[in-house]
Specification:
Nuclear Transport Factor 2, Chain: A, 2 helices, globular, alpha+beta, 137 residues
């Protein structure tokens, strides 16, 4: 018998595939922060949380946007609470300090898109991420 196939369609991961050192951890951290930050922002927009809770993770301009959306007539709000479904992140160019986030959330049976940008504030221990742009549709 021949050796098991490790091609792209064999169902096995390719052990030879490598990524830059630190990239998976940074990507995982950015995805976790993007997911949590998006959930917080949607809770504020829905009126389930105070906008003051966002100051640590959102840029001031984005806090203002979220605060304005919380009092505006947001399309689909009558369908129910916003629920995050998918969140993805990818680095912006070769710069690991910025990542784009994009995903979906639902209200009732409707699916909506979300996109944004996270910027890392480097400290001695770990990067702290700030949401610097947000787009809901």
């Amino acid at each position: 018998m021949s050796a098991p196939r490790t091609g792209p369609h064999s169902g096995r991961s390719n052990a030879a595939r490598t990524t830059a050192p630190g990239a998976p951890r940074t990507g995982a951290a950015a995805r976790h922060v993007a997911d949590r930050t998006l959930r917080l922002a949607l809770e504020v927009i829905d009126g389930r949380r105070q906008a003051a809770s966002l100051r640590a993770v959102l840029a001031p301009s984005v806090v203002g946007l979220v605060r304005a959306l919380s009092t505006a007539a947001v399309p689909g709000r009558s369908l129910g609470a916003a629920v995050v479904r998918t969140v993805h992140v990818r680095p912006v160019g070769d710069d690991t300090d910025d990542v784009e986030m994009f995903g979906t959330y639902t209200r009732g049976n409707r699916v909506f898109a979300v996109a944004g940008r996270l910027t890392a504030r480097r400290s001695a221990a770990t990067p702290a991420w700030t949401l610097t742009a947000l787009r809901l549709s």
